Batch of 2 targets.
Target 1
Amino acid sequence: MSRVVVGLGRETPADMLASPTGAHESRRRLLHAAHHLGLQPEDVIRLSEAVAGCPWESCGTAEVSLVAEALLEMARRVRAKRRASRPTDG
């Protein structure tokens, strides 16, 4: 399986996680991608249930996409905050 790199390429989180084999595979891919961000599966599952408003097992590809977008937005905010806190030369 290829690694998900946030912020590179033109794929949306939905494109990266969408699975022709269905929701189960999309949920597995979400957990795998979140692992690369240092997140624990139970935290991703709780976040998914909160964002999607349904139990993890009921999250389909649309709900997984919403969660992926939320994770991507969090990653963007963290990156922006880190950039803003870097000392400037001069």
Note: The mean pLDDT is 82.
Target 2
Amino acid sequence: MAESLLSLPGIRDNEKLKGSISVTQTNRRSITSLATVFSLSLSIAAGADPGPELKAQNVGASLSNQTTSIVTAYDIHFDLKLTNKSDKPIRIPKAVRTSGVTTVFVSAIERQQTEGNWTFLNQSSFYGTSSTKYADCSLLAPGESAEIQLASYVLPLLKERARELGKEPTLRASVTLFCKAAGGVLNTSGTTVPFQLHLPAVDQ
């Protein structure tokens, strides 16, 4: 997990965050583009301090209205608990009450296999424009924690693959935190501690 300055061209969608912090995510992919896999490429600053430990909490899932006869789509809900495990303050997005402000982007969801290895269930890329709004940075002191409430993440899977997940798979999420500093937009990328997710039943 590392921190870097990022220049963000392109476009993205906006979603309103539940609670007091706003999240913007481009996770709502068209079912017709399900087979397309995107990779997230970030410029990492050499020698940067490690970012916070990331834990998913208040985890839940429900069937999305994007579910079709061949695709099962889940609305996955989780909030992030950030803990500074380093001996220096680190920068994280400041809590904001305005919608349409980018703080967190979920770039991937992975599943742990029986053998212990990890495989991707879904990946996506972040693109911002000159009009994309970011939260200001705030400092998280060593040993302190903060929580960020996230909007739902839509995970579309082919029916067969959804059945293979079982009722309670072990997952982890790759996320990027964004905040605005004097020198530009900072991003801190990392992966959550593994968590179990109870999934609703899949129609046969």
Note: The radius of gyration is 17 Å.
